[in-house]
Design a protein that fits this description.
Blueprint (H helix, E strand, L loop, with lengths): L4 E5 L7 H11 L8 E5 L6 H7 L5 E4 L16 H6 L4 E4 L2 H6 L4 H13 L3 E6 L3 H5 L3 H13 L9 E4 L13 H18 L2 H6 L1 E5 L7 H5 L6 E4 L8 H5 L4
Parallel strand pairs: 1-2, 1-8, 2-3, 3-4, 4-5, 5-6, 6-7, 7-8
Bound molecules: phosphoenolpyruvate.
């Protein structure tokens, strides 16, 4: 099964209704969607509006979700609530959530399983900090993050793994195509060795970290890079060029 190119947009925090509207109506709705799956992840209060504005072939993702169905968990959102407003996807374990909200590997693994079991598709994020890379620990960090997911998940059909080196997120320091390919190939081999050859072959592994219209083309040519998770550039018209990077 060929892995269809996949591009997610993550506008993170601090965006306005007008910006979301122009992003979706003027940018995303003009993208060519035959060859590429496109998913946009606005802040939670904009999800419903985004779903209503976006072309139906564009997926909508939440930036996080909790792992309880309902109850006294003030401030949290459940998969059932997301499904209620026709949101199909969720990003989990973004490095900002790991760093600022102390999300552990195990917590991300449990949330991933709960979201999948409750009908969402999940983009779990993995990635090393600069100090890990400099200490030669990149793959150890990523394998521990993957193991916590694999320990909890039985069916990988609805997972797209995002490799986001923390040192590349929002810094303008993109990984080189060779650096990204090396990690993507390592993740795929880990899946083959620890889950199954079929899951390794079929699971998309997308790259995130300072992707823009200039660097997307070269990254997209690497054989294990199946798309992108884009932060800053997802808010600009160049997002369409990133979506079309492989065409
Ligand atoms: C992100 O926020 O997930 C991200 C990859 O950001 P940026 O593209 O701005 O580095």
């Amino acid at each position: 099964m060929a892995r269809k190119f996949f591009v997610g947009g993550n506008p993170t925090l601090n965006r306005s209704t007008a910006l979301i509207k122009s992003l979706v109506a003027e940018t995303l709705n003009t993208a060519k969607l035959d060859e590429t799956v496109v998913v946009i992840a606005p802040p939670a209060v904009y999800l419903e509006k985004t779903r209503a504005t976006a072309n139906k072939n564009i997926g909508v993702a939440a930036q996080n979700v909790y792992y309880k169905e309902k109850g006294a968990y003030t401030g949290e959102i459940s998969p059932a609530i997301l499904k209620d407003v026709n949101v199909e996807w969720v990003i989990l374990g973004h490095s900002e959530r790991r760093q600022y909200f102390n999300e552990s590997n195990e917590f991300v693994g449990e949330k991933t399983a709960f979201a999948l079991e409750n009908g969402l598709k999940v983009i779990p994020c993995v990635g090393e900090k600069l100090e890990h890379r400099e200490a030669g620990k990149t793959m150890d960090i990523i394998f521990a993050q993957l193991k916590a997911i694999a320990d909890n998940v039985k069916d990988w059909t609805n997972i797209v793994i995002a490799y986001e080196p923390v040192w590349a997120i929002g810094t303008g320091k993109v990984a080189t195509p060779e650096q990204a390919q090396e990690v993507h190939a390592g993740i795929r081999k880990w899946l083959a060795d620890n889950v199954s050859a079929e899951v390794a072959e079929n699971t998309r592994i997308i790259y995130g970290g300072s992707v823009n219209a200039k660097n997307a083309g070269a990254l997209s040519k690497e054989k294990d890079i199946d798309g992108f998770l884009v932060g800053g550039a997802s808010l600009k018209p160049e997002f369409v060029n990133i979506i079309n990077a492989r065409l």
